[in-house]
């Protein structure tokens, strides 16, 4: 848990907000009187058009037919070995596909229709920009579309790690690998001294909060649709140890003094990257930011014997227990990162793909012991699996924008 944003502080702030909260209904009433409901702008989570459905909250309902009609199977070559739960013989590798997402008070989230998707997005470039969880989502979409058309060209558009063009439709999908969105690299103290050296820093990582990683800097001018994510690497002490290898933030090429902690660095990086994308994106480009993907380590963290052995989605009570900030558990960073995303995105023109809560239930859908690592993989998702549903949400959003 990074300092500066402790649950206690959050609670204290809530208490300070109490008088405001009491006034809120009155303010709302006045607003409704001044601006009748139809003139109130739609919330980002709500897809206009179809129905006013908030897809971010709801429940998973069983659908036995889903299991027998696989959207793609373990033979899709693009599936990274450790994520191939059916191929690796995970006990519930198929059973985990039996669930459909039902938003509260609405119909089931429609499934992406691969043929319709290809037809609708002819001559379109769609890029996923982010860490391995966005690669997981990219692979899901590639496999769904390859199920209906095999003619592809594999290449690396605009600095991408990997990409495919579906030739008959001239639709290109690519994945741009970047852990922090911004550029970073090893840093060590210079013998000539400097502001960080004089504070006693010997080594760490230089993180330039205002420079996009070169793996995706060209992506906004190439793609028509972009899906961003970041989060897992920011609050992971195993990658950026606060003592051994701290993140040292730079802006305009010089160290930020006094040094910032990672949560404040994240805020600054998001601010700069949102500005960068707004300037660099091609006209009429569509920008999505995907919210944090939850991890499900129970009984310890990933390096401390934590595991995810469930066969069924969790109940709402179990979800709250595992993820609530008040409990400060192993996976509490999920909602913490989301608070930062929400703050950065609420004033922006990005659309939010809010996959967090639906995914919080899915402790059953990680590779777990079949991930081929020394420890359980309770972070990435089985493919086929829940990231197929993330793509259903993407397709529903795109359809709503176009209609
Ligand atoms: C939250 O838990 C972590 C370890 O799991 C601990 O280091 C930290 O002090 C805790 N924070 C609070 C506010 O309880
Ligand atoms: C394929 O799509 C790209 C991206 O929209 C476009 O620039 C290109 O002209 C298209 N090619 C053909 C042959 O239509
Ligand atoms: C995502 O949806 C959940 C559940 O509705 C909500 O609590 C959370 O604030 C949303 N997060 C963002 C970043 O919009």
From TrEMBL:
Which is one GO molecular function term here?
O-acetyltransferase activity
What is the top-level taxon of the source organism? Answer: Eukaryota
Which cellular component terms (GO) are annotated to the entry?
Golgi apparatus; Golgi membrane
Q: Does the keyword DNA-binding apply?
A: no
Instruction: Name the UniProt key words of this record, in alphabetical order.
Output: Disulfide bond, Glycoprotein, Golgi apparatus, Membrane, Signal-anchor, Transferase, Transmembrane, Transmembrane helix
Q: Name one Pfam family in it.
A: PMR5N
Which membrane topology describes this protein? Single-pass type II membrane protein
> Which residue intervals define the domain Trichome birefringence-like N-terminal in the entry?
52-107
Query: Where do the Trichome birefringence-like C-terminal domain residues begin and end?
Result: 109-396
Locations listed in the record: Golgi apparatus membrane
Q: Does the keyword Transmembrane helix apply?
A: yes
Family to which this protein belongs:
Belongs to the PC-esterase family. TBL subfamily.
Q: What is this protein called?
A: Uncharacterized protein
UniProt organism field: Brachypodium distachyon (Purple false brome)
Its gene is LOC100835814
């Amino acid at each position: 848990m990074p300092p500066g944003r402790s649950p206690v502080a959050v609670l204290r702030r809530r208490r300070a907000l109490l008088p405001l909260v009491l006034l809120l209904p009155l303010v709302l009433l006045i607003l409704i009187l001044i601006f009748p409901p139809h003139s109130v702008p739609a919330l980002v989570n709500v897809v206009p058009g179809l129905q006013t459905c908030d897809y971010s909250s709801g429940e998973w309902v069983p659908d036995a037919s889903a299991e027998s009609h696989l959207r793609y199977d373990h033979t899709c070559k693009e599936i990274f070995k450790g994520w191939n739960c059916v191929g690796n013989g995970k006990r519930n590798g198929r059973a985990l596909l039996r669930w459909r997402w039902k938003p509260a008070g609405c119909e089931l989230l429609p499934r992406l229709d691969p043929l319709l998707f290809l037809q609708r997005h002819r001559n379109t470039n769609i890029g996923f920009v982010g860490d391995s969880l966005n690669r997981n989502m990219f692979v899901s979409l590639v496999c769904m579309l390859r199920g209906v058309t095999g003619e592809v060209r594999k290449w690396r558009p605009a600095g991408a790690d990997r990409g495919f063009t579906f030739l008959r439709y001239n639709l290109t999908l690519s994945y741009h690998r970047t852990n922090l969105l911004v550029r970073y690299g090893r840093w060590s103290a210079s013998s000539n001294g400097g502001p960080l050296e004089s504070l006693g820093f010997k080594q760490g990582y230089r993180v330039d909060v205002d420079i996009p990683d070169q793996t995706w800097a060209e992506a906004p001018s190439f793609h028509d649709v972009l899906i961003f994510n970041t989060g897992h690497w920011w609050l992971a002490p195993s990658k950026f140890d606060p003592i051994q290898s701290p993140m040292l933030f730079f802006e305009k090429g010089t160290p930020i003094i006094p040094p910032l902690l990672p949560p404040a660095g994240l805020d600054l990086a998001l601010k700069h990257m949102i500005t960068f994308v707004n300037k660099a994106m091609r006209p009429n480009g569509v920008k999505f930011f995907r919210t944090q993907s939850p991890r499900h380590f129970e009984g310890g963290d990933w390096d401390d014997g934590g595991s995810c052995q469930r066969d069924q989605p969790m109940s709402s009570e179990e979800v709250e227990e595992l993820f609530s900030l008040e409990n400060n558990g192993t996976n509490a960073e999920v909602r913490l990162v989301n608070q930062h995303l929400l703050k950065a995105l609420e004033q922006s023109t990005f659309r939010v793909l809010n996959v967090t809560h639906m995914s919080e239930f899915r402790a059953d859908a990680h590779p777990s012991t079949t991930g081929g690592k020394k420890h359980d993989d309770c972070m990435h998702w089985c493919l086929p699996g829940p990231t197929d549903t993330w793509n259903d949400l993407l397709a529903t959003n795109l359809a709503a924008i176009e209609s």
